[in-house]
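Practice record 12: protein with PMT.
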Amino acid sequence: MKDIQFSMLRNKEIIVGVCGGIAAYKTAELIRMLTRRGANVHVVMTKNAMQFVTPLTFQTLSGNPVIHEMFELFRGSKIGHIALSDIADLLVIAPATANIIGKIANGIADDFLTTMVMATTVPVFFVPSMNTKMWSSKMVQANLHKLRDAGYEMMEPASGDLACGTDGKGRLPTIEEIVERIEDIFTQKDLVGERILVTAGPTMEFIDPVRCITNRSSGKMGYAIAKIAKRRGADVVLVSGETSITLHRTDIPVIRATTACDMLDCVMAHQKESTVVIKTAAVADFRCSNSNCQKIKKKGDTNILNLELEKNPDIIAELCKIKGDRIIVGFAAETENIIEHALDKLKRKNLDLIVANNVAQEGIGFGSEENEVTIIDRSGSTKQVPRLSKDEIAHIILDSVKKLIKKRHRVKTD
Ligand code: PMT
């Protein structure tokens, strides 16, 4: 099954170098995920790596022959390592052991992988994994320093239980985090300098400590916008309602907000530094004015429970009162007369853009992997975006935001 996610890895030639560490078995999943996102993966193994995993595993998953012999492989008239690095878009070394880090930092090329690293002109991305004492040793740290200075891409290992029985820094980061960083490498950084505040997910309004009024937002649309904005170089802060989504990035601060009033506080606390605000969150318009601090008990034969609701603050409208130069994008979750209602919200709330979606339609909107939207600007002009993954929709929304940013700059400099 192909991964439904939109990916910058489609049709990319990625070489994965595998070294001799216990985490080598996890590289199998990395290869699977890269191929599912459309990359053509070629695996190069060191001799030590073959003590942990057989080439057959990687060959089966990548669909390409695995290279492990220095002098065996020639491609036409070309030497193997040169030919392979010539077609590559990226070289990933995962797990990168202390040994390979030391060799490359010191210019040693004594096997296929190290020789290829010396011969390549494409980015090389190291994903180190080793025992925590090895990781913190002066020699390894000095070598890592050298590699960073030489312009190699690098990921920090994660902390936790290690296979050698110790606990500390040295674990291979999760495969999702590694793939996210690889997506970063291929994504054009056209939003550098922008500080984007995104809200996502539902709010919850408590009736009593165990019951609440909420909605079906999963947070997927807002998380996709936060992730893609970060990939495109923006500084991103995400204010999130209760969701079960994992972002797979540690460089986006996530601020949790349960109720609409919490969300208002969080948005107000972070809006000052932002240049763009994108309000994807599905905020409850009302909250219980008589919410109980104890669980409500059934009373006798009564079949009716009356709840008194009071209006929540309209966060985006509050924000627009103090918007200044900021670009503010709202979403409109509609079930009928989509464009008409969305346009009314855009005008009433003084937004710069509104993204309208039909939340009554099966397979899009709430909880789905895909969405289909119409982006409307202040002049009323509309851009129809067909059904696509939420990552693709995020890119298209951010393209519209970028156009507005450019327009603002032009007006300022005129
Ligand atoms: O999270 P997913 O499962 O991926 O689903 C995505 C989504 C359907 C939630 C998303 O695409 C979407 O439509 N989000 C907006 C939902 C919503 O609350 O729409 P609205 O039409 O009620 O509100 C209009 C705008 O005002 C929104 O930007 C909303 O964040 C904002 N608002 C609304 C009420 C309120 N009290 N404060 C607000 O800021």
